[in-house]
Amino acid sequence: MFGRLKQNFKDMGTIKTLCEAAERIANEAQQKVPGAEHFVLAALELPDGSAMRVFRKLGISREAFAEALREQHRADLRRAGVSEAVIAGSERGVPPLPRPTTLYNAAPSGESLLKGLAALRKRGVSGPLSGVHVLEVVLAMQHGPTIRAFGQLGRDPASVMAATESEMVLAA
Amino acid sequence: MTEIPYPSNTDDPEQALASVVALRLMADRLERKAVAEALAQGWSWARIAQALGVSKQAAHKRLAGIVPTIDI
Fold first, then answer.
1. Which positions in chain B touch A87 (Cβ < 8 Å)?
2. Chain B partners within 8 Å of A76 (Cβ)
3. B 1-30 residues with CB < 8 A to A
4. What is the dihedral of CA A3, A5, A6, A12, to 10 degrees?
């Protein structure tokens, strides 16, 4: 009983760290609210190091993943007929986002991720909440920038899931 | 007849939807830049809202806190 309470308290601290980091990363990318991909980048910063170990197994650096996300965004715009010059112009001189004054908000994919993390315990996942759990929940999403960025880096969902699952075994 | 550009004419829904998301994000950046420039030129929020086709309250709620562009 006391052990579970202690675990819940620790999990809340990890979720708070994740949410704050994801929001900072989203804002740096000129986005007001964090999506699942920003939570993945935030998970790579967690001190438990489990998400980073999965990336190392896959031979991907945090910087390469962040660049793949940026390049995906530009490629999506090019496919919509937007020229390189217009894309570059839209990224220059953008005013910084105002500090949020309301309660914490995430994009729908970020909200799904937080709900997925909360549901992990119900599925019997034990051990402290860690970065690898973020990857596990995101990989269950069929679409979105994270899956597409992995694809751009030449990693299919099955290989990313296999690396994640082997790290989950270690984390349990 | 002029061909409609992507994403409208793609058969791949995932690609088309990803392009729609990217266009929305770019529109958000362009909106903030335009609002900052308008504020720097002394536009009121009422005028900005009218130009954006939204209510003054909606414009203020979504965009308040943007600092006017300053040319150095």
1. 26
2. 15, 18-19, 21-22
3. 5-7, 10, 14-15, 17-23, 25-26, 28-30
4. 140
Residue B22: list chain A partners with CB under 8 A: 73, 76-77, 80
Confirm if B21 and A76 have CB atoms less than 8 A apart. Answer: yes
User: What's the ipTM?
Assistant: 0.84
Q: How far, in Å, CA of A37 to CA of A25, rounded? A: 10
Which of B14, B20, B33 minimises the CB distance to A95?
B33
The matching CATH number, chosen from 1.10.10.60, 1.10.1040.10, 2.40.440.10, 1.10.1780.10, for A2-91+106-171 is 1.10.1780.10
Is residue A68's pLDDT more than 90? yes
Residues in chain A: 172
Rounded to whole angstroms, the Cα distance separating A32 from A171 reads 32
Q: For residue range A71-94, what is the model confidence (pLDDT) as tens digits?
A: 999 999 999 999 999 999 999 999
Q: Domain limits of chain A? A: 2-91+106-171
B contacts of A82 (beta carbons < 8 Å): 23, 26
Tell me if B15 sits within 8 A of A79, measured CB to CB. Answer: yes
What is the rounded distance in angstroms from the CA atom of residue B24 to the CA atom of residue B15?
14
Question: What secondary structure letter does DSSP report for B44?
Answer: -
Q: Report residue A38: phi and psi, to 5°.
A: -75, -30
Mean pLDDT, to the nearest integer, of A108-134? 88
